[in-house]
């Protein structure tokens, strides 16, 4: 059974996720940095380094949100980054950020469904995602569409939350995610469901080797998983 942000509603997971991110978009960046104690910035930096030797010129950032991963990807000196997201609220925040930084010529943000990308086959040199794939309604379908729009030889780099497996971090993270994180999220974002959904979605996500198997099933090769910060998040890399 799918984990949903709003359990009292009959809308699809996709629609509920879009609504949730629209609701919290104004506070999303603040909450991200506070709840991760700023380490999410380091995670993104490490993930992007997996593309350093590839020098991709056209990059697709899926579930781009407010554009932080796209902005980090500029360190690769691409010609263009296109970010897509199902939340117009998140995109609006991202466009303000990109305009403030004077990056409109490098980053373009579009409303779009990550599981039904409106791009041609074999179009992008690299596809990147940060903290987005666990929100997909159909994970395999979303990964398959990433594979379709990626050029042969291109790489996908995915940064996603995972579950620590070793004590004492396993117990500490479980307490933090269930008892503390939802309370802080509720206080700042005013959306009671958003930060209850987050730990629930992490718990339900097939991380580690399970996720690598799904990547392999849709066609990606040379797949690797790099756990970060005692396994709180992981970087996944695959090649078409």
From TrEMBL:
Keywords: Menaquinone biosynthesis, Methyltransferase, S-adenosyl-L-methionine, Transferase
Gene Ontology biological-process annotations: menaquinone biosynthetic process; methylation
GO terms of molecular function: demethylmenaquinone methyltransferase activity
Family the entry assigns: Belongs to the class I-like SAM-binding methyltransferase superfamily. MenG/UbiE family.
EC number(s) per entry: 2.1.1.163
Residue positions binding S-adenosyl-L-methionine: 66, 85, 113-114, 130
Protein name: Demethylmenaquinone methyltransferase
Catalytic activities: a 2-demethylmenaquinol + S-adenosyl-L-methionine = a menaquinol + S-adenosyl-L-homocysteine + H(+)
Pfam annotation, one family: Ubie_methyltran
Cross-referenced InterPro entries: SAM-dependent_MTases_sf, UbiE/COQ5_MeTrFase, UbiE/COQ5_MeTrFase_CS
Pathway: Quinol/quinone metabolism; menaquinone biosynthesis; menaquinol from 1,4-dihydroxy-2-naphthoate: step 2/2
General function of this protein: Methyltransferase required for the conversion of demethylmenaquinol (DMKH2) to menaquinol (MKH2).
EC class (word): transferase
Originating species: Algoriphagus ratkowskyi
CDD domains attached to this UniProt entry: AdoMet_MTases
Top-level lineage group: Bacteria
